[in-house]
Amino acid sequence: MSLIPKSHPRAKSLLIRKRLVDGFDCGLVAKEGLLAQGRGEAFDYLLGEETGKAAADAIRAAAAQLLVADMPVISINGNVAALCPRQIIRLAKQINARLEVNLFYADEKRRRAIIKTLRRDGAGEVLGSKAASQRRLPGIDSARGTVDRDGIFVADVIVVPLEDGDRTRALRDAGKKVIAFDLNPLSRTSQTADITIVDNITRAVDLLTRESKKLRGESTENLQKIINNFDNKENLGQSIVQIRENLSRRAKIA
Ligand code: ATP
Ligand code: MG
User: In terms of Cα–Cα distance, which of 12, 18, 20 is closest to 36?
Assistant: First the structure.
């Protein structure tokens, strides 16, 4: 039973936090994942805890990019498995993407727990566990450089929720298109990805699924136009302005 009353003014944020803590208690989330969530929460507060226009534009571009992909893969870590497993599986089914578990703090037990959670929630095959399928992605020293030959290794478009900057760089250097969810528009991940969705993944993932459904019937030419018209640096600038405007508004009523 949840101890967080619905009437609490920050109930939503507390419930999301609780998912992470529960995920930690059942072996999905690393300690460092709790800290990453804290950094995300701070930026969410500054953004006004809502999906702004910049995020909506990035979601549209991301949907177009996923629909033109030959082989999209969604990379899964502990935080994602704890926060929104069913929503991520729904997205994967909508865009025909494979799921691959890829951990910064690699740990076999945690990897198995994440795969079990995803399978329980309805995922088909979850890549990232077979030793025989392992390949090394150049440019990453951490465990994250070990990828699946049927997944990230050969993917052309990769969705990386709550990512570390080093791997985003390495994925791009390997010639892949990278779509990131990251609440911090200043992070290296945000600055390096092709398309960054500056929004809480718990809000944005369903919006991305919906947008992919909406754009499904569009021609490749139209989808490519949407992608070409999207400028990630400019979009990140808009999210920074969203923070500034939110702060200005708050400063007036403080
Ligand atoms: P980088 O390595 O890209 O410079 P960082 O070192 O600041 O980033 P990491 O811990 O590597 O941060 O990555 C975690 C990122 O995930 C943070 O930028 C944080 O804002 C973001 N984040 C945390 N929780 C969420 C969430 N629920 N939705 C979206 N983004 C989140
Ligand atoms: Mg980092």
Answer: 20
Token pair recorded at residue 20: 């992470």
Domain at 53-245: CATH code: 3.40.50.12640
Q: Report whether residue 104 contacts ligand 1, using a CB cutoff of 6 Å.
A: no
At 138, is the pLDDT very low, low, confident or very high (cuts 50, 70, 90)?
confident
pTM higher than 0.85:
yes
User: Which long-range CB contacts under 8 A does 145-152 form with residues at least 24 apart?
Assistant: 145/170, 146/106, 147/100, 147/102, 148/100, 150/98, 151/73, 151/98, 151/100, 151/127, 152/73, 152/75, 152/100, 152/102, 152/127, 152/176
Torsion over CA: 173, 141, 180, 205 (sign): positive
d(CA 30, CA 77): 9
Question: In angstroms, rounded to a whole number, what is the distance separating the alpha carbons of residues 220 and 67?
Answer: 8
Q: By alpha-carbon position, which residue is closest to atom 11 of ligand 1? A: 164
Residue owning the nearest CA to atom 9 of ligand 1: 164
Ligand 1 nearest-atom number relative to CA 192: 3
Strand partners, 76: 101
What ranges do the domains of the chain cover? 53-245
pLDDT tens figures, 94-132? 999 999 999 877 788 999 999 999 999 999 999 988 888
